[in-house]
Design goal:
Radius of gyration of chain B: 20 Å
Mean pLDDT of chain A: 88
Largest interface: A-B, 36 and 41 residues
Strand content of chain A: 15-25%
Order of helices and strands of chain A: HEEEHEEEHHEEHHHHH
Low-confidence stretches of chain B: 1-9
Oligomer: heterodimer
Structural class of chain A: alpha+beta
Number of helices of chain A: 9
Distance between the termini of chain A: 115 Å
Amino acid sequence: MNWLSDDAIARLRDISEQPDLTGSHYEMVRELGRGGMGIVYEVRDARLERSVAMKVVDDEWRAEAKIIAALEHPGIVPVHDAGELPDGRFYYTMKLVRGVRLDAWASQGHARTERLRVFARICEPVAFAHSNGVVHRDLKLENVMVGEFGAVLVMDWGVADIAGTPGYMPPETTRDARSDVYALGAILKSLLGEEAAPRTLRAIVERAMDNDPSKRYENARELGDDVLRFLDGEPVSAYRENLLERAARWLGRNRVLVALLLAYLVMRVIVFFWMRL
Amino acid sequence: MTVAPFPTTRRSVVLALASADAAERTRAFDTLVACYWKPLYKYARVAWSRKREDAEDLTQSFFTRAFEKEFLATYDSAKASFRTFLRLLFDRHVSNEWKAGQRIKRGGGEVHLDFDAAEAEIGRDSSTVTPEEYFHREWVRSMFALAVERLRARCAADGKEVAFAIFEAYDLDDDRGVTYRELAVRFDVPETQVTNFLSAMRRRFREVVLEALREVTTTDAEFRKESRALLGGKK
């Protein structure tokens, strides 16, 4: 028997790692990426004549995959099919998402309002998952895809024993809806970048990323709603305004009305003085 | 959600060790020896720092005793993988022999093993790892080498020697400079055929290595776990 070097073994392992799709209706196209949970490939579904994404994970994450498959939401990539490979690994196929990763999208110079609207859309599927008892555990810019028309898809759900990614991980070790809120706060902070954000917006980030989980938003819905309130010029729950700030916000929100009123008053003053002449 | 059917092959030779059929027991034992003798011999030499002749005797006597006493049939998959069970048994065997302070004399019915080849392989290895990691690594090498030899034999039987030779030259040889074009010239086949041969051989290799693994595991759960240990992921 010939000697197999460590390099040859590494190559044979790579060869063996490729999913064996013989006898199935899938054909391998290419590897799309790999992470802590598994490897994602583009495969061709010969029956339906379309390309789909196939995620291959170790068997221990089979249960997680089934939970994800049960989450039906426009912001969560739908699972089409699942099964076991000959080597015992578990796979599931999903819609092949075409779009831009949020980290790339964020660097494209979109207006702050647009970035905040996209952020609020990220909160929706996360909130939906929270209401179904599912926690993401690894929310970050790289796990969100933005479609051509601003549609948002949150990827890589529910990794069983992954703590998260530095920068997005809360100080506590337990993982629940509030730890996802912390990660969402980190995403919001990244989306705002270095620009000087209004105090209310900073307060939203600070509350989402509070070191004390009990002081954070209870779930993604509350956080998303606060961001939408900010966008609509309404008071946010994360910040108590003083009278001056409330007046300034009212003025900002009712800019047109105030402008019309001012125009009306100016006209009245002009007419008043003209009549006196 | 549907579960796509994929075929599984071959029954476990570990289970066949407890067969009432003596011939089946012998065949099963031979398969296990083929998979494990080199890792155990090297483990005795490197992890236990035994001299060559001692390691040879330990390996021979371990398998001879295992066959005679049939203690491999006592394996319980709920407790550990067969690989770990075997290594722990071997540890105990070496330790008992050391306590007895004497070399076990080779008896009749010993298995014939090519220790010169195993010894030459140890000389090529210079890395430092824990004894468990070393045994694991050598087990991986042994399983892959077994699968390569099985694939070679099957290709010879099917008249596909050229396909295997291309696989050997491209994927097993450490000369990474070889190109598809060079292989096409060397084996006198079109370049596109090199791609096809490699693809087919890699697919068959995957099948053969998994088949070999299924033989030395007992349950689906153990197979899945050992599959990750063999092919990547957790050790």
